[in-house]
Amino acid sequence: MRMRGFIMAALAFVAFLPSCKSRYESILSSSDADLKYNAAFEMFNRGKYNKAAQLFESLSVLTSGTERDDTVQYYWGLSNYRFKDYYTAETNFARFLENYPGSPFAEEAQFQRIDCLYRSTLRYELDPTPTHAAITAIAEYIRERPNNPHMENCKTMLRDLSGRLDRKAYEGAKLYYKMEDYKASRVAFGNIIKDNADNIYREDILYYIAMSSYKYAYFSVPEKQKDRYLTFVDDYYNFIGENPESKYRRELDVMYRRTQRALGRYEGTEEDLKEKDKDFERERKLLGKEEKK
């Protein structure tokens, strides 16, 4: 009797389960397009973006081929976007733009897609592939919609992303300098300028090009030093021609005087040269102390 009573109670519980479904779960499993459409917007307007996204996703099957389809597809992406699921939202918007390029939602969807791409990019030291993809998409958006209302946002994103690529290239070349491979360092920094003359670290790059050529010459065997010091002289004049008031000017002036002495062209005395070097070292130490404060 006891076992029979237990079984009856269990069956009664199972029979009761469907009535325990929440209103949201009932609507989600419903095939009533109007009910689901209204509920999806209700969730969206209440800020329940994850639930709204699930409803719009489920609804997309019911509205496929109808006049509501572009609205449902767009708000499916927008719900994921507001939920900060940028990877899924970008996929939603990309599919939406492919299927509904003429929709009233297309311009916003295109911007929101590139914003998803931007938010999915990585730090400068990591894989730059997402960064390149975002830059391409932003440039395409600007080209296609030159009067878009998001132009300033687009420019800000481009500056940030381009800055990351600039820094990645700069830090990569700087590794050679830190490893004291000055020949490779000069080549690497030179390649950055060749590839992108407007790199935001251009002044620093030209400085390291000059310092790399100086140190490469200084540590060379005597019979090869002259030609390598002459390379530094070219790099020195190239630097001061662009940056006559640079913070690096005093240091490079010291290297230039030492180079002139090595080439037999220095017109002052050895004592004068040493005194100027000492002045520079004292100034550098003073600046170092001030920076630590």
Describe the structure.
By secondary structure, the protein is mainly α. It folds into two domains: 25-165, Serine Threonine Protein Phosphatase 5, Tetratricopeptide repeat, CATH 1.25.40; 182-292, Serine Threonine Protein Phosphatase 5, Tetratricopeptide repeat. Helices cover 76% and strands 0% of the residues. The protein contains 14 helices and no strands. It has helices at 2-16, 23-28, 33-45, 49-63, 69-82, 86-99, 106-119, 129-144, 151-178, 182-195, 202-218, 222-242, 249-262, 270-292. α3 (33-45) runs antiparallel to α4 (49-63). The radius of gyration is 33 Å and the shape is rod-shaped. The termini are far apart.
State the helix count. Answer: 14
Architecture per CATH nomenclature, i.e. the level-2 architecture of the largest domain: Alpha Horseshoe
Report the order of strands and helices.
Answer: HHHHHHHHHHHHHH
Report the biggest beta sheet as strand number plus sense, adding barrel if it closes.
Answer: none
The CATH class assignment of the largest domain is Mainly Alpha
The CA-CA distance between the termini, in Å, is 86 Å
CATH topology (fold) name of the largest domain: Serine Threonine Protein Phosphatase 5, Tetratricopeptide repeat
Q: Give the class from helix and strand content and strand pairing.
A: mainly alpha
**Total domains, how many?**
2
CATH superfamily of the largest domain: Tetratricopeptide repeat domain
Net shape: rod-shaped
State mean pLDDT (0 to 100 scale): 88
* Poorly predicted sequence stretches spanning 5 or more consecutive residues: 5-19, 286-293
What is the percent of helical residues?
Answer: over 70%
- What portion of residues belong to β-strands? under 5%
